[in-house]
Write a structure and sequence with these properties.
Elements: H1 3-9, H2 15-34, H3 65-79, E1 82-88, H4 93-104, H5 106-115, E2 116-122, H6 130-133, E3 144-148, E4 154-159, E5 164-165, E6 168-169, H7 171-181
Helix pairs in contact: 5-7
């Protein structure tokens, strides 16, 4: 959300207080989240999961999303799943939080990988994958999900902040998303 959007949304006599409170809440969230483990720790290093293709395990600026995308589409066709493209990066706090949530929640993890072949596409200063991202709808926040059929047809685009409930990722909201957009639909 941009500052101009905040001003439009909170326009009124309490604007200064609301904006200040918003800034303080963001600062506290950032400080608290910096105390959480972001790799390994109690969740384990999910990047070492031998059951997942390399392109599903992390945001790697050296990977080619076109090659990985072809492989993901092939696997989706062979396994009867859709492809979930996750745009983000290792720099992204919410990308790390979402990954830890998914890999720390067996029900969400199982449902996600049962229904989707996950293709992680790095967006960073090292490689913004501009050419690949130009073929997708414009996004304004990370992580962001795109869903395609196994033939590559884009069927949905969604900001993952919609999975947050009171600042925390929600199992029920993520499972609703998987149920709605998963391979059985």
């Amino acid at each position: 959300m941009t500052a101009s959007t905040l001003h439009k949304f909170y326009a009124g006599p309490g604007l200064a207080c609301v904006s200040t409170c918003f800034v303080y809440r963001c600062l506290l969230l950032w400080l608290f989240s910096s105390l959480l483990p972001v790799s390994g720790g109690e969740y384990g290093a999910f990047s070492e999961n031998p059951d997942l293709p390399d392109y599903s395990q992390g945001f790697d600026p050296a990977r080619d999303p076109f090659v990985d995308g072809d492989n993901a589409l092939r696997l989706a066709r062979e396994s009867g799943r859709r492809v979930l493209i996750e745009a983000g990066g290792e720099w992204c706090m919410y990308c790390k939080r979402l990954d830890h949530y998914i890999h720390g929640n067996p029900m969400v993890r199982e449902a996600l990988y049962k229904n989707f072949v996950v293709l992680k596409v790095n967006i960073s200063d090292k490689n913004d994958n501009r050419e690949f991202m130009a073929g997708l709808p414009k996004i304004h926040a990370y992580p962001h999900f795109f869903i395609t059929e196994s033939d590559g047809t884009l069927i949905h685009s969604q900001d993952t902040s919609r999975f947050l409930h009171r600042g925390v990722y929600s199992e029920s909201l993520i499972l609703e998303f998987i149920d709605k957009w998963g391979s059985d639909n």
